[in-house]
């Protein structure tokens, strides 16, 4: 069986995509993205800034602000990202 030379870039792109997907899942980044996305759906959240991969800044609708910090070797973010924007800025 002979492979057409036109298909080689396609196979290379697929291989790169698979490697990137495995790294994304293994690094915990998918957990981080999912948790931040769920946090943005909160009714008491005004704005979330996550420019720094080790820190999330949350601005509440009640005017309060808080930060969530992570370690360098963080693998799972599921239980670390939380909504602390209550009526007085305390965790609900």
As a whole number of angstroms, the C-alpha radius of gyration is 19 Å
Query: How would you classify the helix and strand content by structural class?
Result: alpha+beta
The secondary-structure element order is HHEEE
User: Helicity level, as a percent range?
Assistant: 25-40%
Number of helices: 2
| Residue-averaged pLDDT | 81
Strand content: 15-25%
Shape: elongated
The biggest beta sheet is recorded as: 3 strands, antiparallel
In short:
With 92 residues, the chain is α+β, with helices and mostly antiparallel strands. The chain has helices at 8-26, 29-40; strands at 45-49, 55-60, 65-69. It has a 3-stranded antiparallel β-sheet with strand order 1-2-3, with helices on one face.
Describe it for me?
The protein is α+β, with helices and mostly antiparallel strands and 92 residues long. The protein has one domain (5-69). Helices cover 34% and strands 17% of the residues. The chain is elongated.
């Amino acid at each position: 069986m002979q492979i057409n030379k036109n298909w080689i870039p396609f196979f290379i792109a697929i291989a790169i995509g698979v490697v990137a997907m495995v790294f994304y899942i293994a690094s915990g980044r998918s957990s981080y993205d999912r948790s931040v996305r769920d946090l943005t759906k909160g009714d008491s959240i005004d704005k979330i800034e996550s420019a720094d991969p080790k820190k999330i800044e949350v601005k509440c609708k009640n005017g309060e602000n808080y930060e969530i910090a992570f370690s360098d070797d963080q693998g799972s973010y599921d239980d670390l990202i939380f909504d602390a924007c209550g009526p007085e800025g305390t965790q609900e």
